[in-house]
Amino acid sequence: MIRKKGPRGNGKVSGKQQTRDIIAIGASAGGVEALKTLVSGFSPDLAASIFVVLHVSPFYPSVLPDILTRFGPLPAVHARNGDAILPGRIYVAPPDHHLTLEPGFIRTVRGPRENGHRPAVDPLFRAAARAYGPRSVGVVLTGALDCGTAGLMSIKARGGVAIVQDPNEALSPEMPQNAIKHVRVDHILPLAKISSLLAKLAREPVGREVVAMETKPIKKRSVFTCPECNGSMVESERGGLIQFECHVGHVFSTDGMAAAQAEELEAALWAGVRALEESEELARRMASRSDRKLAARLVEKAEGMRTHAQLLQKMLLGGDWMLSSAETVKENRLVRKKRK
């Protein structure tokens, strides 16, 4: 007797032709509207399991399953740890949890954030590739930065299919553009055509071709520290995509690192503004209780603190420093590459 791990078995079900029936979808900015359009094109008899990651806030409840159920024929639910994987159902990553897969069932975990997100797209794509190999289909929709690109590489490396929304129609084209730049994408389509393609793939038998195992990236110690935990990081490159990972497991792409460092720098600068304003206030209070000579020096110091605080505040409110800090990360990377 063959013992199965779940309703869908272990990916090697005997007596049944395997199809591309594990569909993993990732989206960010503009993703709700894109997903509504996509699911509205599904047929009620779609013989596939759909898994969705949308970058959402960890502090508020998500109503995305209700929205997708209302706009499409398939029921959508928040994935729960240990749920069996059933066909004809949409599983949505719950807030503040990564959605991953095992053969036959679902895992939801509060693992380290990737590119500042939890849930993130890459953990889902990697897990689908590991658990289901050529049965997996990765779909990258509208979104900022490049979440999903590394995971799409894993799906392709294990014989799966890579689909990307046409960047020209995406509300935020960066996620699709980065996927196209680094991955040999199989299909670049508008949303209206992706639904019918997924239905076709769900009926399409998986071939018996030999699938090459995923190429391991070359890793080296990084000069950067993790923006999340300040730990040391390892830098890796695969297919032209550079990633940074700390010993805890936080992962950043180059763009993600630039964005995280910009946020970290902004927080430090606002802390500097606060410290300068408090120093000014303290100097003025001390001046009011000092002799004339010392008071004059303290007032001069207070005026200096005020000038510096105003300069920093003007720079922060202007926003130009954010672009320069992000560009600096990229420029430093290019300089080091040229030196080699």
TrEMBL record:
BP-aspect Gene Ontology terms: chemotaxis
Keywords for the protein's UniProt record, in alphabetical order: Hydrolase
Boundaries of every CheB-type methylesterase domain copy: 16-198
Keyword Signal: no
Enzyme Commission code(s) on record: 3.1.1.61
GO CC terms: cytoplasm
Superkingdom to which the source organism belongs: Bacteria
A Pfam family annotated for this UniProt entry: CheB_methylest
GO MF terms held by the record: phosphorelay response regulator activity; protein-glutamate methylesterase activity
Reaction it catalyzes: [protein]-L-glutamate 5-O-methyl ester + H2O = L-glutamyl-[protein] + methanol + H(+)
InterPro entries hit by this protein: CheB_C, Chemotax_prot-Glu_Me-esterase, Sig_transdc_resp-reg_Me-estase
PANTHER family reported in the protein's UniProt record: PROTEIN-GLUTAMATE METHYLESTERASE/PROTEIN-GLUTAMINE GLUTAMINASE, PROTEIN-GLUTAMATE METHYLESTERASE_PROTEIN-GLUTAMINE GLUTAMINASE
UniProt protein name: protein-glutamate methylesterase
Organism: Candidatus Manganitrophus noduliformans
